[in-house]
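COURSE: Structural Biology Practicum
ASSIGNMENT: Worksheet 4, Part C
STUDENT ID: 0417
INSTRUCTIONS: Below are two proteins. For each, the amino acid sequence is given first, followed by its structure token string. Answer the questions at the end about the second protein only.

PROTEIN I
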Amino acid sequence: MLELKNAEQIAKIQAAGRLAARCHREVASRLAPGVTTKEIDAFVEKWLQREGGYPYQKGYNGFPYSICASRNDIVCHGFPTSIPLLSGDIVTIDLVVEYKGWLADLAWTYNIGRVRPEVKALVRHTLKALRLGMEKARSGGRVGDISHAIGTYGRLSGYGVVQTLVGHGIGRQLHEAPEVPNEGSTGTGIVLEEGLVITLEPIFTLGGNDDVWLGRDGWTVRTMNGQWAAHFEHTIAITKQGPRILTTAASSLAQVSGFSSRRLRQ
């Protein structure tokens, strides 16, 4: 069953989302060649606790860290490590913030140093797919409209579109109904109703192959062929006025600019 949120509940999720966005800005300012994702993990845990939040991933179904840190060919759910980031890497930082009992989920792929043009394009197109999907997240539409926008753009751009991992409803629980796939057909799936809060998370891979495999740790998902992957995610609410992004301080889709820093900007 769908759990529709009222205005007060959406505001509480947005408070968690704004905290997540602020945390990502702090992360973006710290990511650079030589930094380790374990250092980022420790920073996020301390920063959120200081701000009154909690890194919800830590302990979730046994997950041992405060963030997922997915580097290069890791699609998602990567463990932070003590291996320094290198110029040319990409890394996705995925974090779930709990704030006063409500959750928000936000993932971003960052370029580290000087990244190859084809990798930079992968990151840019995956972010654009997120925007295209969000534009379809309107009351009266269907989940398939979102999925079709994301998947069609990814395929036409020549990328693999990971289908085994999906967006989802969110609120007091991390994974609520409905699932939001990254491929689908327009006019299919559940109707998007006012008050629905969902995450969209396109994941594209280089080379057009979307096969993935699960590592022995039971969490880390990698591309089957070793090609690199990019992953973006926002938490949004369906409203009468259109999609409302809850994991940013921006008030409209046109204002979403991402989390860059001088050390990351290329």
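PROTEIN II
(use this one for the questions)
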Amino acid sequence: MKNTVSGSGVEPAERPNGPGVEPAERPNGPGVEPAERPNGSGVEHRSLDRLLRMFGRFVGTGYVIYFALLFSELVRTANLTAWWWPPFAGVTVFGSGVLLGLATFLTDIRWTRLAAGMAAILYLVAICTWLMAWDWISFDVAGLYLSAFPGLAALAASLVWRPGVVAVYLVTVVLIIHWSNARVRQPFVEPTLFADIAFAIMFCTIFVAALLGALRTARILDATIAATQANAASAAAAAARDVERERFDALIHDGVMTSLLSVARQGRTESVARQARATLDQLDALRSYSVDSRFDRVNAVAHLRAAATDADESVSIEVRGASDPGTTYPADAVRATGAALAEAVRNSVKHAGEGATRMVSVTAESGRLAVSVSDDGVGFDPDSIPPHRLGVAVSIHGRMRQLDGGSAVVSSTAGSGTTVHLQWEELA
């Protein structure tokens, strides 16, 4: 193993046997770690949010297309109703649909849900107010242009409401719009109201059911990921306790028992006294660590080095940052960063390609830990990773997001290698 040390903080290449140092934690299987901390409130729904945005844009595009196709009908049938209804319907129906498409580009998914609900409600308002605006005297053989897309409004409703509510909404809008359409066409066309309603409901139900099914699958996937993360958190906690027990057992054997045996054999020599003092210092540090759950700088860097070399013994490690004897870090931050570091190195070993070289840079400063893992391998497109792949999304991003002040950035391009930046900063 090659180690390069820069700056004033020089760390030993060996892993010390003192307290605060243990091997990188490995929960049940690779790519699994504690549950991600939600952004804001509730559990993160990455797959569901992605589908909501995609279908929201699809529905918004549909509204734009229907507006372009039906604008001439909107103008032609304006004389059937009071003057205020055509501009009111045009703005509320098509404007809300365009707003839905635009809302999907906002960071907060709640705007997409709000816009979808508005689009569904305003379509229902528009077809209900048509009955108020119609003079009940004028008729048209082509009927109402809004009858062309009740299913699109139902798709908008599917993005935000439960399936039972969506079903009631779909039946309601189809009944109202086709009854109104039959009335305005009745003098010219023999009414086939029942057939039109039945066909519209069945036709729209196909697309609505497909969308609801896709969203349900996304919810199940997100729930499965959350459950996996929660189980991994419990496993990681159990593994950490086992490590503490093993370290305590090793200290008792290597320190206390050896010191007592040396006293019995050699008496009170200077070397035995030094050994006893070192053992007492280790016991004091272990007690302090158990209470405060903190790593000092030396042990924190040693833990990160151990995590990297456990994954790849040949990895080059560079340690930076000014050495401050009083610098300590929360144990959770060091362990989580070490686990994410180990996963990043393992991913590089597995996917970077034969012959790729890796470099790990550790910056340990007061209130800040930063780790960079880079390789010159084949690289990849981060956006191409499906949400059900837990390696990067969960084992790297998830681990760091669970920390207050933690973050992770994966930068890669096909053919140009990969760099993973991990950072923890103590919040004020």
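ANSWER KEY EXCERPT:
Q1: The longest strand covers residues 358-365.
Q2: The two ends are 37 Å apart (CA to CA).
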